[in-house]
Amino acid sequence: MTEKEILALREEFSQNELYKKSCSPYKDCQFEQFSANGEILEGRHGKTDIVNGKERYVIFTFKNGLIHSEDGLAAVECPNHWEWWSNGLLEKVIDNDAGVEEIWKDGVPTSISERTEK
Hints:
This protein has 118 residues and is mostly beta strands. The chain is 14% helix and 46% strand. The chain has helices at residues 3-14, 17-21, and strands at 35-36, 39-40, 43-51, 54-63, 66-67, 76-78, 81-86, 89-95, 100-105, 108-114.
């Protein structure tokens, strides 16, 4: 997929109402291939970031530079927030601060529901 195609898809996604409501701070990272010091990222990496207005330590899991879940574990983890990804596309978000669970397909949320358990 070319960068132009990726940008067009991101623009299309951003018009989706559920996408706009999503609590994922990383939804705009779909399709992005991450690297550091010229090396494509693999495995788990962490960094401090702002999530839900709070400074948090976030752990990411990468496969070939794309955010990707392995063995059923969240690919993005920080306190009270988890995201499951497959080859650079979001699949599920659980955010206990917002009290929601989101199910994603093909780059956009298909449902956002209130969580009763935290």
